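User: Sorry, what's this?
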Amino acid sequence: MDEAYDLVTTKPIGSFSPAFVGKIAGLIKEAAEQRRLRGVVRK
């Protein structure tokens, strides 16, 4: 379980495929059309 998280290294380990990004973008668009999306205010 020690290797489940790596919050120290900033070296990229890969990237998302265009197909995956397209699916996520579609889901966000649907959510935006169904209800109002709001940002999170962090202090």
Remarks:
- The helical segments are 18-34.
- Residues 22 and 28 are 10 Å apart (CA to CA).
- The chain is about 40% helix and 0% strand.
- The mean pLDDT is 82.
